[in-house]
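Deviations from the work plan: none for this task. Representative record:
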Amino acid sequence: MVDIVIAGYARSAFHFAHKGALAKIRPDDLVAQVIKGLVHKTGIEGGALEAVFMGCAFPEGEQGLNVARLAVFLADLPQSVGGATVNHFCGSSMQAIHMAAGAISMGAGSAYICAGIESMSRVPMMGFNPLLNPALAHDFPPAFISMGETAENVADKYGVTRKDQDSFSLESHQKAALAQGAGKLRDEIISIEDEIGAVIDHDGCIRGGSTLEGLGGLAPAFKEEGSVTAGSSSPLTDGASAVIVCTADFAKEQELTVLAKIRSIAVAGCAPEIMGIGPVAATKKALSRAGITIKDLDVIELNEAFASQALACISDLDIDTNKINLDGGAIALGHPLGATGARITGKAAQLLKREGGNFALATQCIGGGQGIATVLEAAE
Amino acid sequence: MRSIKKVAVIGAGVMGAGIAAQVANAGVEVLLFDRPQTEGDDRSAIARGAVASLLKSNPAALMSKKNAELVLPMNTEDDLDKLGTCDWIIEAIIEDVGIKQGLYRQLDEHRKKGSIISSNTSTLRRRDLVEGMPSDFCKDFLISHFFNPPRYMRLLELVGGDETPDDLMAVVEGFCDKQLGKGVVRCKDTPGFIANRIGIFWLQCAVVEAIDQGISIEVADALIGRPFGIPKTGVFALLDMVGLDLMPHVLGSMAEYLDADDPFHEIYREPVFIKEMIADGYTGRKGKGGFYRLKPDSPEKVKEAVDLKTGNYHKASRPPVAIVKKAGRKNPRKVLDDNSPEGRYAWSVMSKTLSYAASLVPTVTEDIGAIDQAMCLGYNWKYGPFELLDQIGAPWFIQKLSSTGQKVPEFLTKAGSEGFYRLKQGQREYLSSIGQYRPIETRSGVLKLEDVKARSKPVAKNPSASLWDIGDGVLCLEFHSKMNSLNLWTLGLMGKAIRIIEEGDFKALVVYNDGSNFSVGANIGLMAFAAKIWAFPFIDYMVRRGQDTYKALKFAPFPVVSAPSGLALGGACELLLHSDAVQAHAETYTGLVEVGVGIIPGWGGCKELLCRWALAKDGPKGPMPPVSKTFEIIGLAQVAKSAKEAREMKILRPSDGISMNRDRLLADAKAKALELAKDYKSPEPVEITLPGKSGRVALDLAVAGFRKSGKATPHDVVVSAALSEVLSGGDTDMTRKVSEDALLTLERKAFHSLCRHPDTILRVNHMLKTGKPLRN
């Protein structure tokens, strides 16, 4: 079987939706700048690409009309490059990577750019026209359960305390602030120009000065007597990301730096009301397909949609927390839904190369009750 | 011909930034300067910080947050060359002649020839500010004295010099009047001009007399408040708002500049304990507290008042002052004529103050109207000194002055039994400085309903509303029920107005009143009473009657223009939505607030606002965005804090007008009505696409989330469900169109069930009792 690798990773800085530096930038422009930056940084020949697969959780408005194809034009890629938009909610751009890997395995091309985009400023959660199936809402309410409520359910079911959630969130901010301070995030961020020409190249959501007292003082956000707060949830975020998925041979030909090899992939469903536990089943499947165990992993990117679900997954999978989200997770960096999958997969690959080791995992939960996982192996 | 299209304000302190905000509120670009920041990259950080503070200010300095984009932060070292593009430069820096003149020389180098330059000084004289300055500068220089906060205080005192050209004064006056909405009072170059000359005297008098006569601050505020039409802050609470530390400067300036024989000197002193309060940081609301404070370190809000004898704080009480109760309103003589210690205190303060005001005619101004206007607009007095003297009775006042051995100002003696203002043959007249009555002239572009009422009889009238002929074929509907609430009488007169206009010579209807609030909406007291006696069919009838009346107004064969100012809530907001056009005062506060009392807008408000959003071309497409937006606005009982915000909420249309000056509102509305009356055609009913059940589920799920998080109460869920049913179009489907009548039917159905719900009745009764919404 052909070796499929991650041979490039980039993202925009992530900023708070509505009040952040990216709020006034159209999402199609934003992701096009990231793709363009990735092409420029890696030196990949645009014409050699089969297609751009683009993850987006709410692909409408300015990120609608098959934004992947529009991004091809905006990023000045040749018209021969295809473009398809993928919606798998929070797992959208990891799904794009999986689809590219699958297509390459089928012999459908050698290289794809798998990107993700979400402007939560400019396209609201649920989209502009949420029109739910009334019968399903009546017969099976969890189908449309709010994400915050699932976080509370997971906290209850898995006994995750408020204190543990706050500590985990604090640690995420501290790790991200440390990484930012040490310049460890610099390489992955493509500078974005806003409408007046100002350059945005620093993440805007990280709060290095967070304290346990501050986090402890926040009111529950989703349930009156609950434990999940705005501080222990990932914020509404604007951002874009992209990775190059290609064959090892292609990478060699194009002299791309291979970050990691894709070893296995998986998706799994779970009860929608505890969707945050989705990564457990998906990870187990992916590990089994890779023929390794959780102990074999050296680097883990576990998306922090909420501290409660991240902690429940850590506990259930028996993960060594020293290997998790080394440069901070979504609670600190932000979670632009469609862009997160490519970020954590690209990041896991980058960290595996930076930190050394054999295997890495990128996994995340998905609304509606699902998990998605990718196991990476160090490049030879 | 000079005109003002761009303004600069130098000094980004509270006043400077506030003035800049009001200029921006007028839609005019303004450069806001302060000194440069020496640290960091942003040299204009001080002015930029002031703009950030404007955005957070409460009460809001800006009528819309978007207006902040018109205020451009600058610094006085790098950016003075940009003054060359400005037509008016307003200086609002420290009150120091030397520093100001130094700045003026810099400004003079960079300003364009003929640009207007003015100072916002409150204590300095124009003649000192221009002394030694170039003659061109002097010609272009004025004092423009705004009051704090500049958005809300309507007074602007304007002081020119002998060399000031008439056209310059006229341009500034016109701009301030029409675009900034100010009541402009031209003043002579005398200390404190008019408002502060009297206001500071009054405040100082009230303080020293309270100390001397052993009157507590709570009693003093109760006495020198409501009986005289003065805000309930009275004296001491007002000083807390102004800032105690400001007073020594202002008093000192008055003492320095006023003539030696001015009565001010008799009351001028700085009580030691007030000096100590200021030194200890008790400077009023901005400091640790003032004459009043909230008890420190107390878990509950406990208001404390200072004891003027000991300087110690005690729990503030609301004293039952018998004579205040006895006097009620518009009868100040009863307070002044009372021989109790409280009555003697009130007499000592108000007799001196009113005499002082009279003594300023003619040296400070020949125009008693200017004095009354200055105190009403600058100090929020309901009646000016001469209007108060008319209520008191000048002969009685003079007699009492004489009997208590007080000096009677000469001008006072000129007022006979007819007083200072009189009505003669339908014309309002005032007493001139030489003792002759002169007609009160109305400025061009100003139409006062009180003048119409003084000279004519109503076309129709009932206990809650009247119809007036305001000329040129325009009928004016005036509400005058309690708080201008809407009831069957008001609805009845709307119906009558339609018949009169259809059958007679009128061609348009303007809905307007002189009240500080257009209308608080439908009379919910009536609904509470009906619910109490189980007369629910009557409530259903009220809803139907309101819908029918508003619909008849909307589709009447003549234009209807509503002209709100102040509150226009609930049913009144629905009236605006049904009008062909709205001419709103900039300070209009409107919204559909029905959910606060457990109901939804039932007079077509849901329908109208929904249609506005559905037919708008500036939003996202699809059936849900208008529904979501309307649901948010009505479901959260959002109230626009200005006409501009009302436009952003689509309660006002882009074509609706905004009058910055309250005095011009009726004339502007009438002009709009006449314009619309030319070739008028009634609007056609509209149909819109709505999502039906699929959309309702989404809204209900969102509310369920709010309930779980504690943001929504149990009855919020009930009311929201009724609202989502209406706004989603009931059982419709997005392949069908929904008519206005169908939406009205849905409104009635929702109202029918909500008004019978016991939790709604609890909300209504709670609102009537406390004035606040019940969160049940």
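Chain A has a mean pLDDT of 97.
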